[in-house]
TrEMBL record, chain B:
Protein name: Amino acid ABC transporter permease
Species the sequence originates in: Agreia bicolorata
Segments forming domain ABC transmembrane type-1: 15-203
Principal subcellular localisation of the protein: membrane
Keywords: Amino-acid transport, Cell membrane, Membrane, Transmembrane, Transmembrane helix, Transport
Length: 255, 214
């Protein structure tokens, strides 16, 4: 990868989380989360299930509300409600574990719907851009198909194209390959790796350690709602510092 | 067969009344029921509670009891309406509860994931409903709504009990004169079956047209 290494604390962050706390009822899901993600940085969040990594990802575009603390996206505090929140969300792309394509619309419509409705692009411009993106993720021939006619890997690539169509400043990936059959994981990861190489700011929650090694600038390890340690992928995987990270890595890397 | 030919005029007009009641009450129930379903899934607790109470009331009280109540109680309370419109009003209010349940079940077929995806793309609540939720839930609700409309058409017969001259009532009157119950009520039954068939086929056609490829 020919990118400049990005130090975690450099400059003002594209996403800055400060002292974020999140409760689900009595359950304290996110504890004292402070995390700054620079523009063009690729941060991979790993950790055992239930560690709060998906919740952290979902807080960044306020699909989950936080109990206290602050989150800034490109210097703007997350609005609480309404039009301002919708506008902010339109600048933050999100890819879900379960794809969540609109089942009643063609793949092309899925990609053009938000640009036309939210960004007020003309149909012509939106469609040209959509076809370009679908070509880029390798499913241009599926433009007129419906989501259910595509394989999981194709659906997830369509979902990535849908998010990219909004020309987002940041892309959030919430376990994008966890619902895929093993043979389809690579085709999705390849798209994500090329995005990273082009300089997209990315937050990726994943269990794909190979992807973390190849594409991440920084690995953030979470356990029990806290960020336990963060480091470059090489350092994290080869020389984990905390006992919990060592235990986690020994569990996932031994088989 | 002569008995039908001799009374063709009153019988046809009675069938017309049945169809008209079904259509007017059906449209009313669809509109009101959709509004109730919207209230039922709205984020406002008071609306949700009111819609829930509405559905529970009408699902748990017999239609005949409601008809009798309306026909005899409303005039007592100073509201005087002709019989047929009263019956149509009660039918619409009653079936709206079932329409609301059918629409709500349709809404539930739209995965929460798609709603999250539309929020994440920057859609407002209105856009999410208009572009994602409603088109899909109406499609899923077509067949159940067809069944509600068939039930509504059959239920128009209860209006006979409170004196509306519709198909069942006309058949009954004819039988009092001719004393041929099997022939007369079998014929009336065939007319109801034909109406149900038309509604069922119509719903099937609509469903095929709007079906989502899965």
């Amino acid at each position: 990868m020919s990118r400049e290494p990005i130090s975690p604390e450099s400059g003002t962050g594209m996403v800055v989380m400060t002292d974020v706390q999140k409760h689900f009822g009595d359950h304290h899901v996110l504890k004292d989360i402070s995390l700054s993600i620079a523009a063009r940085e690729v941060v991979v969040v790993v950790g055992p299930s239930g560690s709060g990594k998906s919740t952290l990802c979902r807080c960044i575009n306020r699909l989950e509300t936080i109990t206290s603390g602050s989150i800034l996206v490109d210097g703007t505090a997350l609005p609480t409600e309404g039009k301002a929140l919708a506008t902010l969300r339109s600048e933050v792309g999100m890819v879900f574990q379960s794809f969540n394509l609109f089942a009643h619309r063609s793949i092309l419509d899925n990609v053009t719907l938000a640009p036309i409705q939210v960004r007020k692009e003309s149909k012509k411009v939106a469609e040209a851009h959509a076809l370009e993106l679908l070509d880029r993720v390798g499913i241009a021939d599926k433009a007129d198909s419906f989501p259910a006619q595509l394989s999981g890997g194709q659906q997830q690539r369509a979902a990535i194209a849908r998010a990219l169509a909004m020309r987002p400043k940041v892309m959030l990936f919430d376990e994008p390959t966890s619902a895929l059959d093993p043979e389809m994981v690579t085709e999705v990861l390849d798209v994500m790796i090329s995005l990273a190489a082009e300089g997209m700011t990315m937050v990726v929650v994943t269990h794909e350690m190979g992807f973390a090694r190849r594409a991440a600038d920084r690995v953030v390890f979470m356990d029990d709602g806290r960020i336990v340690e963060q480091n470059t992928p090489a350092e994290f995987f080869d020389h984990p510092e905390s006992e919990r990270a060592k235990a986690f890595l020994s569990k996932i890397l031994t088989h | 067969m002569d008995i039908f030919v001799d009374s063709a005029g009153p019988l046809l007009s009675a069938i017309g009344t049945t169809v008209l009641m079904a259509v007017v009450a059906g449209v009313g129930a669809l509109v009101l029921g959709t509004l109730i379903a919207a209230a039922r899934i709205s984020p406002i607790p008071v609306l949700r509670g009111a819609a829930f109470a509405y559905v529970q009331f009408f699902v748990n009280v017999p239609l005949l009891a409601l008809l009798i109540l309306a026909v005899f109680a409303l005039p007592d309370a100073g509201i005087i309406m002709p019989l047929a419109p009263t019956a149509v009003l009660v039918l619409a209010l009653y079936e709206a509860a079932y329409v609301a349940e059918a629409v709500r079940s349709g809404v539930n077929t739209v995965g929460n994931g798609q709603i999250e995806a539309s929020r994440a793309l920057g859609f407002t609540l209105g856009q999410t409903l208009r572009l994602v939720v409603i088109p899909q839930s109406l499609r899923a609700a077509v067949q159940p709504l067809g069944n509600v409309m068939i039930a509504l058409t059959m239920n128009t017969a209860l209006a006979a009990a409170v004196g509306v001259v519709e198909l069942t009532s006309a058949a009954n009157k004819l039988n009092l004169v001719e004393a041929q119950p099997i022939l007369i009520f079998a014929a009336a039954g065939l007319v109801y079956m034909a109406l149900a068939l038309v509604i069922g086929l119509g719903a099937g056609r609509i469903e095929r047209k709007v079906a989502i490829l899965r």
